[in-house]
Each structure stands twice: as structure tokens, then as C-alpha cells.
Amino acid sequence: MGRSLRVIASNDAARDLFGCSDDRLLGQSIYQLVPSLAQPDGGGHLVWQGGPGMLAKGRAVSCRTCAGEAFTAACDVERFSVGERGFIGVSLHREPPRREPAVAPAEPVPPLEEPEVASYVAKVKSYSPDKGVLGTLGEQTGACGVVVLRHVSNGAPRGGRLQLHDRWSAEPPCVPENSNAEGSDVWTQTAPRPEWMLQWETGYSIRVKRTELGGKESEIYARYGVETFLAYPLFQEDEWWGVVRIDFASRSQPIPKTVVEVVDLAVPLIQRWVLRELESTSAKGMAKEQFRTLFDSSPDLHLVVGDDKRVELVNASGANRIGYSVEDLVGEAFLRLVHEGDLDSVKSWLCAANSKPVDKEFRILRQDGYPLWVHAKVDSGRTASRNNGSLHLVCRDVTDRYLSEAHALRSNRRYEHIFRHTAVSLWDLDVSQLRERIHELEKSLKVPLSVYLAKNTHIVAELIESVKIAEVNEATLMLTEADSRDALVNQFVSLFQGDNFAAWREFIIALARGNNRFDTETVIITLKGRRFFVIFQASIPPEFDHGVNVCLALTNISERRRLERQLMHSAEHDYLTSLPNRSLFRDRLDVGLSKARRSNRRLALLYLDLDRFKPINDELGHEAGDQLLKETASRLRSCVRESDTVARYGGDEFIVLLDDIDEERDAEQVAEKILEALGRPVTLEGREVGIPASIGISFFPEDGKTQDQLIRRADAAMFAAKRANLRFCLYKDLEHEACRDGSVSELTVTEAEPVDEAVP
Q1: Do residues 173 and 226 lie in contact, with contact meaning Cβ atoms separated by under 8 Å?
Q2: CB 536 within 8 A of CB 425
Q3: Which of 183, 410, 631, 654 is most deeply buried (CB count within 10 A of its CB)?
Q4: Residue 7: helix, strand or coil by DSSP?
Q5: What is the DSSP letter of 253?
Q6: Residue 151 in this model has a pLDDT that exceeds 80
Q7: Helix %, strand %, coil % for the chain, to 5?
């Protein structure tokens, strides 16, 4: 227990007694200040017993001031506890050199109560302007002390002493607070002698002989050799504050008039000093109280750590913040609070803190083990004032900030990983200059920006050049076939040429309109000249006017486009011959009819059927039949123009659309050319086989004005040619009206809309 007894609190009287400030006293070992406390049992333990709770009472001990000056004092040592923490209180009463009293005390003088205004004690010595006045007063008048008594409303004035110098012969008198004995009326507010109150108010002195005192006060004054004193009213801002009392020892005669005159001259100086001390002490006390209040209520954790790295002082709110009480932490090793992962760095930081204080962030463990991140700094001003190797640490909880920063760091790393390794081409673009150019253009233009850019493609190219590439990912280098980022930056504009500037034009317009997103499809030309279809997507921050960066994503959809074209082709073409199927043919016929009506032109339909396909297919097999159909399709395509359409209409039937013909002879020549081409034999399964066919022809607008009319009548003409063994037949050449109207049963079936055959 002896080694851990350090001062954790002291009052003003203790600081005056040891001649040092509060900061120097705090943390001092009690055995350095009172060496004889460790002597009773030789082991550094306090073993005196002086009553309940008392380890010692009234024991004379040797003490040492902070400057090393030795003195003797009466010592009371008491054990007490706060919560579960134990403390020891040490009270010291210094015994000044005693002058031989006029009346020897019959018994030991009991210790007087500590005065309420104890901060005034011995202040005279340290106040040089008035030291000479007070010293002279004592030498010339024989005054043994000055007592300041403060007026209170519910009892006797209470006060403390002001020592002139070392001329005290004994402890100065002080009327107890609870004194109601007769004769004490001189000190009470409700004094029965109104002339004394009148004298106080008018500023005159009061002289009282010992014989005029009575009761307990007379006994106390007699013990200290005080027979007579002078009292002067003390005013503060025109209000009576209390009394300044000059005490004289062992005067059997009345105080001489000359002495009273000297005192009358000195008292105003004493009063001014008292009032200055009152104001100063009050201000200091308030400041100290305010500091203590702020210290205890500060949300930060304040720790005073001694040179042994133990906590000497901690604020209450800071201790509560980490789950401890003040009593839990005082005396504990500071490093026990530090997270093990930060121990080494904190040790080094503490070692260097006195000479080179720097801020540090580390983890402190709460009582439940949860780590809190704190930003700690050394309060160099308070550390220096202590001057005993202690450190005043101010630790601010930055856990929320640290967690936010850690979350932001993880998010940034996650974003960076996604940015770099995603398969989509990502661009981080600096568009600050582009933004300025857009605003300048909008101010100078008299037409909408979209109209201006549509007519001035070169301006779009110039605007693109103002865009700066901040970063691109690996997928971008692969898409653009660039060897490096620098190569891409140097040839950025070349990726978008000609009509491909349209995507950038629309993007620039979107920026100007304040849109947050933009996407379109366009084509880029890689640095090696290949063309890729891409989705052009830009994410524009809402605060575009204040920001500078835009995220651009280019998604290669070339393969998707190829698959889409393949699917579309499969949906509209015959899988075997790759010719347009019935659906696509009808679409083209509809377009052709619309065009012919607008231009007042003619068109023709040639309906073709292979005459001997079924026997060949049955005899030589389906593969031979498929080969025959493919060859037929190939020869048909070779006989018409690019603008014409050849379609497989079903089974072994084909249909040809001839756009924009001048006369019927043009269609007849195409029919003859087709029959000639099909007449050439084809080799199937090692056999040469001819491809005989019959063709029927109908014309717009003579033979019909709708799709169905033209197709039915071309079909009817084809059956007529087949029955008559003609190579081809025009619908208008049919001789029988029944053939035209479909009244004959055989032809009626022929003119009906052909039923779709399942074409795989």
C-alpha cells in the first residue's frame, strides 16, 4: 500500500503549506512530502490507530516542502472509501514558532476548524507591494495578526487569517461558526449594540478589551494571548462584506492613540489588498471550478499518465465512455487499455511524447473488450506545467470516422477491382473542358445546339477532342485493340468516324440538357481497322455543373448482332435453300405494290412448280430431293436482278417477284431464261436428271391489285400451263371464263390459296 500512495487531490491550504502549485502536487508520493509517515513499522505501512477509521490523529510528523524546506506539522490520517475504491486522507496543521503567551494555557489547545476563506492564508508574504506596509504595521504597533471575517446572514461572520510575517505567537483567534455564547454579539449581524453597527457603517474602528468579551470567546482569546483588537468594516461596491480585525497580544492597557492612528492609516491599504485578493481568488476559484466541470464533462477521454505509465487522473465522462469509473482507472497501467495490436507503437509514442509530441491514432479497449479507435494528442501546455514526467493525453473517439473511412476504402477497392477486371469496356472521362465548350456554344448560338451539331460534324469532332481520358480498364484496351493506354489516348477520336459521330453528338446534347443517363448503339473502328457494334452508355452525375467526371461504358454487341441477324434470317428464309420464305415474300410484295401504286408502274409474279419432283424424290431419296431444290434455288437467283425477289413458297413451288417492269415481254423473257436454266440436267446420285417446270404469270394492275389476287391468278396460270403442257402461261391468255372465275372444280382448287407445307 505504501508505494501506491500518491496525491490525487489537494486544497489551497495544502498547496500553500508545501509551497507549490496543484499541478506539482498531483502525482507526488506522500512519503516524499511527509517522510516520517513510513517510519512506524519500518515497512512503509500506516499502522497508527486513532479511533474509528483513523490511522493516526494529532501525530507530529516531519514534512518537506516542494523546495526541500523541512517543517513539522500535526498529522491526521483517515481511511475512507468511495464505491469500491479505497482512499487515505492526510490532514496537516503546521505549528508556527510560539511566543511565550501572557497566559499559559491550562490544557492543549484543540485544533481550530479550517477557515472558509483559507485561500487568504499567507498571501501577504507573496504580495510585495503591501508587504512593507504590513511588516511595518506589525513592528510599530505590536499587532500579532490580521483576521478577515466575512459577513453571513444566518450567524457569525466567518473568515480566515492573513499572516503579517513570522511574528505569530500562536494560532490566531477565530470565533467558531456555531457560537451563540454571550459576548459574541460583536460578530453577529443582529448585534444588540446598535452603536457598534453604526461605527462599522461609518468606517470607524472598534476597540474591545478582553474584559468586554464573555463566554467561550473570552476563553479562546485568553489562550492565545489576545487581549484587545481593532475591527474595521470592509465594503465591496458600497456593500458591507465583512470585517478586517487587527489583533494585539498581551496588552493590559488600552491601545495607545498613536497605535490606533497607525492602524487607521494601514487598514485602507489592507482592505484594498483584501478586496484584490478576494476578486483574484474568486476568479481563480471560478476558473478552476469551470475547468474541473469542463474536464469532467468533456466527451473526450482525458488521461494524466505518470512516468510509471499508470493513470494518475482521468475525467468522469471519458472513463464512462469506455465503460469504467474514475476509481477503476486511477492507478491502473495505461497500456492495459491499449489494443495488443497497437502496443509497440504506443509505447514508442509515449517515450517520445515529452520531447516531440505528435498526434497518434490507435485502439483503446472498452471494458467489454470492444476496441475503439481514438485520436490521441499530448496537451503540451498542461504536460509542461506538471513538470514531473506525467503526460496529459486527450483521446477523441474517432471510431465512426474510422469505420466510415474503412468502409469507403473497401468500397473504393471494390469499385477499382470491378472497374479493372469487368468484361465491359469502362472509361473514366474528364469532361470539364467539354462542359465549358458546351456552355460557350450555347451562349453564342442562335439555333438549338442539336440543330447546329447536326449540320456541323467537324464541331462534334472538336468537342470530342476536349474530352480527357482519366482511366480505362483492360477490357477497353482489348476492345479498341490498343497496345497501351497512351496509344489509345493519342488516337481516341479515330475510334469514332463519319456517321459514328452521331453517338457523341447525342451524348453532348444529353449533357447540355442535364440528363443523368445516356445510351445508344453505334460502331467503333479499332486501332487495327476492325469494326465492332457497341452499346454506348454514359452515366452523368446529377451535379454535372460542379463535377468533371463521367463514366462511359462500351459493350461489344457484335456477336449479338450476328446472332440477331442469324435469327432474323432463319425466321424469314427457308433453311434449305436460303431463299426468302412465304412470310418475307409477302412483306416484299406489299412493299413492291405500294411502290408500284405511287410510281404508277407495273410488276409481275411468276409462280413456278417442278413437274417431276415427287418421282425423283421417291426414287432417289430425300437427300437427292433436297439437292435438287438447292440447285433450283441457285439457278433461279442467277436469272433475276438483285432488286427482284425469289422465294420458296412451299414444297417444290417457287415464286418470283419482278419489280418495276415496262411491259409483259420483260416477264416472258425472264420466264424463258428460268426454264432454259432449269432445263440443264443436274447430277443426282450419279444420274443426270432434268428439272422440268411450269410457270404461271400475273401482272399488276391488270390481273389484280392485291397480294392474294395476284398470287391466286399466277397459280391458276401455272396449272393451266401444266395441263396444256406449256412451258409458261399468262393469266390473261386463259381461254375459258371459268378459269378466270374459278367455276370449274379442278381449277377452283388450283386457284384457292395454297396451303402452307411444312418446310423444315
Answers
A1: yes
A2: no
A3: 654
A4: coil
A5: S
A6: no
A7: 45, 25, 30
pLDDT recorded at residue 148: 65
Q: Residue 666 half-sphere exposure, CB side, CA atoms within 13 Å?
A: 15
Is a pLDDT exceeding 60 seen at residue 170?
Answer: no
- This prediction has a pTM of 0.46
HEC profile of 338-403: ECHHHHHHHHHHHHHHCCCCCCEEEEEECCCCCEEEEEEEECHHHHHHHCCCCEEEEEEECHHHHH
Which is more confidently placed, 98 or 514? 514
Alpha-carbon dihedral sign for residues 319, 325, 327, 332: negative
Q: 484: phi > 0 → left, psi -120 to 50 → alpha, else beta; which?
A: beta
CA distance 277 to 208: 27
Sheet holding 425-430, edge to edge: 468-472, 425-430, 549-556, 531-539, 517-525
Beta-carbon contacts of 8 under 8 Å, excluding residues fewer than 6 positions away, are 26, 87, 312, 313, 330
Give SS3 for 742. Answer: coil
pLDDT given at position 254: 63
Report yes or no: 735 and 717 within 8 Å, Cβ to Cβ: no
Of 154-163, 640-649, 706-715, the poorest mean pLDDT is in: 154-163
Cα-to-chain-centroid distance, residue 513: 32
Q: Please, where are the H alpha helices in 115-179? A: 123-126, 128-141
Domains and CATH numbers, the chain: 2-94 (3.30.450.20), 118-289 (3.30.450.40), 298-398 (3.30.450.20), 422-560 (3.30.450.20), 573-751 (3.30.70.270)
Average pLDDT over residues 124-138: 48
Q: Which residues pair with 556 in a beta bridge?
A: 534
Do residues 141 and 164 make contact, with C-beta atoms less than 8 angstroms apart? no
- So what's the pLDDT on residue 126? 36
Compute the distance between CA of residue 147 and CA of residue 382 in angstroms, rounded to an integer: 35
Residue 503 CA from chain centroid, whole number: 38
Average pLDDT, the chain: 74
Does the pLDDT at position 161 exceed 70?
no
Q: Locate the DSSP E strands across 662-725.
A: 682-684, 687-689, 693-700
- pLDDT tens for 214-254 read 444 445 445 445 556 677 766 666 666 666 777 776 555 66
Q: Give the 3-state secondary structure of residue 102.
A: coil
Angle, alpha carbons 473-475-480 (nearest 5°): 105
Calpha distance 42→75 (Å, rounded): 18
Contact 415, 441 (CB under 8 A): no
| Residue 696 binned pLDDT confidence (cut-offs 50, 70, 90) | very high
